[in-house]
Amino acid sequence: MTLRVVTIGVYGFGEESFLRGLRDADVRLLLDVRQRRGVRGPEYAWANSLRLQAALARAGIAYEHHPELAPTTELRQVQYAEDERLGVGKRSRRVLAAEYVRRYEAEILGSADLAPVRSALPKGAALLCVERDPEACHRSLIAERLRVGVEHLRP
Question: InterPro entries, alphabetically (predicted)?
């Protein structure tokens, strides 16, 4: 069996399509890699931590929060500055800033213990953050560091 990880964002999904995507990908454990587990906007209220955990429990999907894999507030500011320079919003970003990637890999992944994440993979694990496109989110960097097969779920 080849190990694989699934990644998924919040933006672009509704609660039902999000859960259907996870079920279709045979995800049994959602690993939340967000620092703050809230999402702004009424259309994404379902993705706020407690509501999301309740929906996942009803769907038979376990939940774990891994804040040690989340970018720090300071690091997110690096990305926001690049977004502003390029004139793109968080929800329309398509790629990560080179400086953000360099620092995330050094400051977060450089000292992260990925063993708990790796041990979850045979169970059917997914990495969750908010961005629609994995190329615009640190979850893709985590998936790449795991050196396993990756499936990115998109709305």
Answer: DUF488
Q: Count CB neighbours of 111 within 10 A.
A: 8
Handedness of CA 22, 100, 12, 58 (dihedral sign): positive
Give the tens place of pLDDT for each residue, 46-89. Answer: 999 999 999 999 999 999 999 999 999 999 999 999 999 999 98
Residue with tokens 């994404």: 44
Return the amino acid letter for 141: L
Which of 36, 58, 38 shows the shortest CA–CA distance to 48? Answer: 38
Confirm if 52 and 63 have CB atoms less than 8 A apart. yes
3 or 97: whose pLDDT is higher?
97
Residue 18 has which token pair?
């999000």
Question: Has this prediction a pTM greater than 0.90?
Answer: yes
For residues 87-110, give the mean pLDDT.
Answer: 94
What's the token pair of residue 70?
Answer: 């989340």
Number of folded domains in the chain?
A: 1
For residues 79 and 98, what is the distance between their CA atoms, to the nearest angstrom? Answer: 9
User: Domain residues for 121?
Assistant: 4-153
